[in-house]
Design goal:
Length: 763
């Protein structure tokens, strides 16, 4: 008799150790906010401001059965997947309709303007956060906390720390852009690149007093002190008993509205709001220079600033500026939340991803960033029935609906709690709009500081093995699987319709379905159909991971990375990940112009690429790929391609294992016209050496005696400034140079190639 599959902790959903069985991603609960933040840009003069960052989800006590397993880091040898030990018991309903997804147990903060926050009268001065007082044991509540230092025109520093027994047990240092989302390390100034690791090591394991006594990193003093202040404020927020007279952290705090239209700086002294500055933001999330304000922007800023200073979030809009006032008021509210010592958001700041209701034609996914309980970034995807993003190949109406639905969600600052397809959906794509909204709602539920008892969402979830042999539509209700619909993919990559299945295939589908319902991933393999049996179990694991309320370690998507280069070119891997598993990989041998050489590559490499593609896809995980055997005759390329896969995983990390600007190694980049190549050597996360090559139209290196005087002069300048041990002169914000027009023209192309090489090396 078929039995219910209990869906709780790791053990029951683990698969037998087949080569391509899907491993469930690591249950990494310290989720970081990730965003393609823009380069730091000059901003109007302003006092420093504070900016929020992503936090981490507290560890929940798991139940004793099936839940996704943590994916080990790349440096460790993959752990053998244990077999589940508990046999399911209850009989499932064969035709159960998918349960509707319940609302998140805690609704996000209202996205309309929060309650009036008239500037409070001066009261007792808050306890200084820069000089913490020694406190007695157990005064801090264990958990994950995020806070920020004083902000300034470039953004601010932040820290996400986990506190246990009064000490820092994990820490993620943040450096935010004006839009208050943690930016990639390489987009910060170069003195910070190595300061991340140095300060992290200094602060780990420290008490509040110990953290305050840590020395700043030379060359990054302001950021070091900003991180220390952030850590101290995080400890202040963790106090079990807080000073009731202290409401705000003294200093300058910054916030933005979810649509990114305005940033607001709010200064608090002795619990009183003493100053407000309002800045329009550009599309990159940076401040618009005050000198470049339009007449409309100048008028809006002049009207909004005194209103916020006098009334806070109760400021009344001026006729004709209603939209501007709404955006600026939301930004002020955000700044106020960052300033509050007792920030009561129900959610942990950070990056979260989730799915809507699955169908046989595919499913929608949403990747979001939450700060102070509000949605500040969202990306929407439409996946095919193989659960890979369809991008522009999705239905035309769905593609058109993506941007307006994104704008609606950001303006709302959350999901729509009482979704109405006529009001909240996008005409022509109402089903996808609803599914996107549902995905955002589920992502918010993943972010709850106090999660509910259930380990899985109720609803219908899709699962596909990483080689796209089997699709499962799995109904989940009350942490149990109530029904499974199994479909097979044909050799053309398309689903085989039920009425097109052969008699043998129908029998196989029936046997696999009943086996999964009866014993889950412990189902016995069907003799002669071992690969398909393993694929079915992998698909079940995938479906349950998609239904899980715990955020994984890696982002889903396609990530491009390179192996180490040499003077003939390099190796490239485009790796598509889902739940930390490789679901697609494309390998290339590229020349010095970064163009795929295809069959023109060395015969051994041409022969090796399909073999390695199959082996890497079968390995399926970051760790297992490193154990893939090199192909005889193409050992160096095999190693380089495996390195590229590992670096692709590095780009996909939600919380970077080692926050650095660049991967160590050798990388090449080319100019826009593909006639200049620069090879960059990176050591300890810093570009230390560069070599310049000039190429012909076929991508071959030109001999030195073929170069012009200008080309030789530029080559000499770049290569003679390499030290081999410290930051290269042109390794940070390179700009064109030259003594004459010819040299300036050549150096401009070389700078393009340098930036391309650094992009290839970037984490």
């Amino acid at each position: 008799m078929k039995k219910l599959i209990s869906l709780t902790v790791s053990a029951a959903i683990l698969l037998a150790p087949f080569a391509y069985t899907l491993n469930v991603p690591a249950l990494n609960l310290k989720v970081d906010a990730v965003s393609a933040a823009s380069e730091e840009a000059d901003a109007p003069a302003a006092k420093p401001t504070a900016k929020p960052a992503a936090t981490a989800k507290p560890v929940a006590t798991p139940k004793a059965t099936a839940k996704p397993v943590a994916t080990p880091k790349a440096t460790a040898k993959p752990v053998a997947t244990p077999k589940a030990t508990v046999k399911p018991t209850a009989t499932p309903k064969a035709t159960a309709k998918p349960a509707t997804t319940p609302k998140a147990t805690a609704a996000p903060a209202a996205t309309t303007v929060p309650a009036a926050t008239v500037a409070p009268a001066a009261t007792a001065k808050p306890v200084p956060t820069t000089s913490p007082v020694t406190v007695e044991e157990n005064v801090y509540q264990d958990g994950v906390y995020v806070a920020y230092g004083d902000a300034y025109s470039k953004g601010t520093e932040g820290a996400k720390i986990q506190i246990k027994d009064g000490k820092i047990t994990s820490i993620d240092l943040l450096r935010t852009s004006p839009k208050l989302i943690d930016r990639d390390a390489r987009n910060n100034y170069s003195a910070l690149w190595q300061a991340y690791g140095l300060m992290t090591n200094k602060l780990l394991g420290k008490t509040r007093d110990g953290a305050a006594a840590v020395d700043a990193v030379s060359g990054a003093t302001r950021s070091s002190n900003g991180w220390k202040l952030s850590v101290d404020r995080a400890f202040e927020r963790a106090l079990t008993v807080k000073d009731t007279d202290a409401i705000y952290f003294e200093g300058v705090h910054m916030g933005i509205d979810p649509t990114g239209k305005y940033a607001v700086f709010a200064t608090y002294e002795s619990n009183k709001l003493t100053a407000v500055k309002v800045y329009p933001l550009n599309s990159a999330g940076d401040f618009v220079d005050e000198k470049a304000y339009t007449a409309e922007q100048s008028a809006a800023v002049a009207a909004i600033t005194p209103a916020l200073l006098a009334k806070g979030t109760a400021a009344q809009p001026v006729a004709g500026l209603e939209a501007d006032f709404k955006a600026a008021t939301n930004a002020f509210w955000d700044a106020e939340q960052n300033a509050k010592i007792n920030n009561t958001s129900a959610y942990v700041d950070g990056f979260y991803s989730s799915y809507g209701t699955a169908r046989s034609v595919g499913v929608e996914r949403a990747d979001i960033v939450i700060r102070n309980g509000k949605l500040v970034d969202v990306k929407l995807f439409r996946l095919g029935n193989n659960l890979i993003d369809r991008g522009a190949t999705a239905y035309a109406e769905v593609v058109k609906a993506n941007a307006p639905m994104t704008a609606k969600l950001l303006e709302n600052g959350s999901y729509f709690a009482n979704y109405d397809e006529k009001v909240d959906g996008i005409s022509g794509a109402t089903e996808s709009s609803h599914s996107w909204n549902q995905a955002v709602e589920r992502a918010f539920e993943k972010a709850l500081k106090v999660p509910g008892e259930a380990n899985y969402f109720d609803g219908k979830f899709a699962g596909v093995d990483n080689q796209s042999k089997v699709l499962l539509l799995v109904d989940v209700a009350s942490d149990a699987v109530t029904n499974i619909k199994l479909s097979l993919f044909g050799t053309d990559g398309k689903l085989i319709a039920d009425d097109k299945l052969s008699a043998e295939q129908k029998s196989l589908v029936g046997t696999l379905t009943s086996g999964l319902l009866d014993k889950g991933v412990q189902m016995s393999d069907i003799t002669g159909q071992e690969e398909l049996s393993a694929a079915a179990k992998a698909a079940l694991t995938d479906a349950l991971t998609n239904a899980s309320k715990v955020q994984g370690t890696y982002k889903d998507g396609t990530f491009t990375a390179f192996g180490d280069a040499y003077d003939k070119g390099t190796n490239r891997a485009d790796v598509t990940l889902r739940n930390g598993k490789i679901v697609n990989v494309a390998l290339y041998r590229v020349g010095m112009n970064l163009v795929d050489r295809g069959k023109a590559a060395y015969p051994e490499v041409v022969k090796a690429i399909p073999q390695l593609t199959t082996s890497i896809l079968a390995a399926g995980t970051r760790e297992a790929v490193q154990d893939v055997d090199a192909v005889s005759g193409a050992t160096s390329s095999s190693v380089a391609l495996k390195t590229a896969v590992d670096r692709a995983y590095g780009k996909a990390e939600i919380v970077e294992a080692n926050k650095a600007a660049y991967f160590d190694g050798i990388f090449i980049g080319v100019s826009a016209d593909k006639l200049v190549n620069v090879m960059t050597y990176v050591e300890h996360g810093v570009p230390v050496k560069m070599l310049v090559y000039y190429l012909d139209k076929n991508g071959s290196t030109r001999a030195v005696n073929q170069l012009t005087d200008a080309e030789l002069a530029v080559k000499s300048e770049i290569e003679s400034t390499s030290t081999g041990y410290s930051l290269h002169k042109y390794g940070y914000r390179a700009a064109a140079f030259g003594n004459n027009d010819a040299e300036k023209e050549v150096s401009a192309k070389v700078v393009e190639a340098i930036k391309s090489a650094l992009e290839s090396a970037g984490k």
